[in-house]
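User: Can you predict the 3D structure for this chain?
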Amino acid sequence: MKNLLRITILITALIFSSGAIADEASSCHFHGKTIATEEVVINCAVERKELLIKQSKIDPSWKAIEQDKIELVDGKKGKEWLITFTNPTVDDKMKEKLYIFFTAPGNFIAANFTGK
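Assistant: Here is the predicted structure, written as structure tokens:
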């Protein structure tokens, strides 16, 4: 009976403690509908780009690349921020532009090389 109680407590602790651990890009998680400033979104895009490098999803050469363009565009669910980075040193010209999308309040949506 004591072992069953210990196992139950341990499982409960593991389940509820995992929700308290934030992902690496959690500093750019916002609530509400207020549109984020360009400065906030650019900082979040740089953080996301560094995370993509760390996860080996994009080449480390992207680290030194600054954003080219930021714009508020019409997305599938309303306004979205679109931040564009251009890396002329990449071998694959189809991956020369990195597009990072955020909701209007500043939450990450997606990153890709297509801009769609």
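DSSP finds two helices and four strands in the chain. The two ends are 56 Å apart (CA to CA).
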